[in-house]
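Obj.: predict assembly geometry.
Materials: sequence records (below).
Method: joint structure prediction, all chains together.
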Amino acid sequence: MDFQNQYQQAHQMPKYECLLFDLDDTLYPSSSGMSKQCTKNIEEYMVKKLGIEETTVTQLNQVLYKNYGTSMAALRAIGYNFDNDDYHSFVHGRLPYEVLRPDHVLRTLLLSLPYRKLIFSNGDKVHVAKTLSKLGLKDCFEGVICFETLNPISDNEDSKSTGCRKVFDQSCLFDAGSALPVTPVVCKPFANAYEQAFQKANINPQRTLFFDDSIRNIQAGKDMGLHTVLVGTSNRTKGVDYAIESIHNIREALPELWEINHKKDISRSFSGKVAMETSVTA
Ligand SMILES: [Mg+2]
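Observations (raw structure tokens):
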């Protein structure tokens, strides 16, 4: 047992103070079809707005996503310039939001968790707000860290004023040994996105539990000091502290999240005496 755990037990300090949630495919299942449609919209944007050859777009998008975590970050990295708002309204604005339904079970779970709760999404603020609203979860979170939080307006103004494209040699994307051009977009899984999120939302990663469906985002989060929950699979791999098939399984996988209430109740029952609890967390 390390010093921090001993200190937390002795002082009845909860292990966590904040829960940080990705949105898409984390707070609703990937089987909703939203992600599939999002990929279609991205490919359509690449063909219609950026003039990328239709026959190559699927493979290119897969390589871009694999290398950068988001297609948008990758497209900007390899030299495409476009208006961020136009991209978001084309890619997210046309998603089938009607497939999302209010999730009363998740709402009850979230509201019963006595911690700060924040969204940490690469999506734009309109998409995050619409999705949370459709899921009936808008008032379950203290705040939202999204694309606009991490990418200030000035960057977008740049792309609006340029409006042209200057594309790098794309062969580096297909060659594992090549150095990739750096993206100007701040997003998960890059370290600067986590650093900005921690700073802007006053998050202590050592006392925060991070939920995401992307193994890459989870592993990057682990490297940044977060405790991690991979959502969408029960397979635990490197960097994954907990793995759950569905966000609905939080209570079964992490019953200790609710135990601080229980401990408080026990403490109160000892008429003024501070009850020293033996930790029951694994
Ligand atoms: Mg996600």
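Conclusions so far: The beta strands are 18-21, 116-120, 143-145, 208-212, 227-231, 242-244.
To do: check interface contacts against the pulldown list.
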